[in-house]
Amino acid sequence: MNLFAEMRAGVIAALDQMTAEGTLPEGLDFAAVTVEPPRDAAHGDMATNAAMVLAKAAGKKPREIADALAAKLAADARVTAAEVAGPGFLNLRLAPTVWADVTRAVLAEGTGYGRSELGQGIKVNVEFVSANPTGPMHVGHTRGAVFGDALAALLGFAGYDVTREYYINDGGAQVNVLARSAYERYREANGLEPEIREGLYPGDYLIPVGEALKAKYGDSLLNKPEEVWLADVREFATAEMMAMIREDLALLNVKMDVYSSEKALYGTGKIEAALKRLEDLGLIYEGVLEPPKGKLPEDWEEREQTLFRSTAYGDDVDRPVKKSDGSWTYFAPDIAYHWSKIERGFDQLIDVFGADHGGYVKRMKAAVAALSENRVSLDIKLIQLVKLYKNGEPFKMSKRAGTFVTLRDVVEQAGADVTRFHMLTRKNDAPLDFDFDKVLEQSKDNPVFYVQYAHARVSSVLRKARELGIDVSDAALAAADLSGSTHEAELALAKKIAEWPRLVEIAARANEPHRVAFYLYEIASDLHALWNRGNDEPALRFVQEGDAAATSAKIALARACAVVISAGLGILGVTPAEEMR
Fold it and tell me: What CATH topology corresponds to 3-94?
């Protein structure tokens, strides 16, 4: 049940009637007509912009359309009042039975309430994390992992066919640095002093890799030239790092469907095939780029390169895909990788990048648009930085990592559920402060606790009702007489529950899972407000001593709230709390 969608359908039907009667001209586009909660709850339960968005095309004043539409909607049994305000805003007030029906729908559908067919099975690839396989993941990767996983879950809930993918950056120079760093730890495992010179990875996490290399090779690689051992050590160390990364992701309950390797693109003809595709479209040429604006780099020189005409698809400048020495730029394998996703049949691509990749957005979107001839869309979500605090002070780096705080550090301090929820309490492109003390405190100011406490409160009410011999199964609660739940605090909660299916679709369309976290805080606030009102007004308490029928009615609303909270937490990858300790 999606009440807002149903009411919008009613508005569209009324507009169709007005068209048939000649009140509105033929051929109007109703796509921009919305039904949504009013900005001020005092104005009603829902509002539609129909008169405002249709007035110009209809050649009528908004108020004229609104008056006629209000008369049509007043005939709907669900509508108790259709009120025109201002120049043509139309506010609707709904009968209390409507909100009772919402509660019953939630109890009937369970956590499936709010699921949508918006996606219509469209194939979406969400690529996220994609950390270099050179060490453990840091806190920035943590935020990207949570965001990507929650976004994938949200899209799946909204009816999309979603694939979670990790792109292993194992084809660049950084994996050679990893191999050299691991070799020094291998020397250390063999009793020699490691030479962790500048430019190598200093973290203690490579000590076990060195020991594993010794277990495999003994001392056979000692004192051998780099060309003898580099390839083998690189492959071994990369595999060890990816095993560590998988373990780190598992701590966050993140599981990828696909791992793709950059290295697998080299020497296989895949990069050449992708660029041939662009060449066939007339988008590859030999040319000289203009010098960068501002102060020229000392090493700048004009030279002919192989370029992709990305400006044809909205980029600021054309981009090199091959260097003057004939080697590929970093951009070339990325083009090939995205071409592979297009060839695999995805309709939409989403990349989750760190904030430092902002300059990569336009060129990558241009490449996907060109390769797919605008059939496949690419949305790139940039993840801003996370600042860690503990005891009011910045949380220091991990010795194990060498230079940064790891994902494991964060999860071990805060727990997976708290980490996941808090990472979604800000929009992805806004910086986020993660204070270990605040995310663990039990207060209204901590959204993680506040939402979990709401769910736990309902669970405690259900336990108490069971002890009183009351059937609190969803089927029994759905059959309760809900006609008495008309207090403003009860209706506020029921109305917030009704917003859930609409919120899911809005968040999915925008690829913004943080909206789910925001909504959960709001619905938890309404549940807590109703609970607190019950302290002063016994008639609002969920358990009505000696009155099983009234208790069932009160608990039905609370249980519906808990179902929605559970569904929302499921999207965020957080386990609902049954009790708070």
Answer: Gyrase A; domain 2 (3.30.1360)
